[in-house]
Amino acid sequence: MTQTPSRRRAPGMSPEQRREMIVAAALPLVAEQGAAVTTSQIARAAGIGEGTIFRVFADKDELLDACMAEAMNPGHVLRELASISLDDPLDARLVQAAEALRAHTDRIGTVIGALHASGHRRPRGNGDRPAPDGRRASMDATLDAVRELIEPDRAALRPSPETLASVFLGMVSNRYHLVAGESRTPLEEIVDILLHGAFKAPENAAT
Q1: What integer pLDDT is reported at residue 183 of this predicted model?
Q2: Is pLDDT of 55 > 80?
Q3: SS3 call for 180
């Protein structure tokens, strides 16, 4: 009699992998509902039983803290910056970089704003905030990633790529850029001003 081969069970997730999966499923719900989201809703979004959440998180507050930390994780934006093609023109590279940075800032603001508005204001230790050394390292890594995007044009630039990267980050770091009642200055306009200045070309300039 032919025996049916036994089915192998897929390897289970490690606790850290399960935490990451749950946080990824929870983040959109937290951004929408803040601390009002329930662990039952998060479990359904993750496709797991509600009890599984409490095998890797002590309680809901710890999960919310993890969501806040993940929203602030610079790894996402650093990967996006690294994926920008150096074959693109410099202005196109910087617009893409500005879009990635603004999306990262928006995600932080949305998640933290939703949590604070719904009453979640209790960091544990550093809780929702990276340590000062971590913030410094994150800022340095972001600055270096932008510098690498500028580096191919070093010979054509007046400022060094390091200086231009620092100025660029300062220009795009403001979340609002309020101008004449508009909610935001277009990123293309910010990059154009950075690279080409604010003065109009003289009308009698030689062509």
Answers
A1: 60
A2: yes
A3: coil
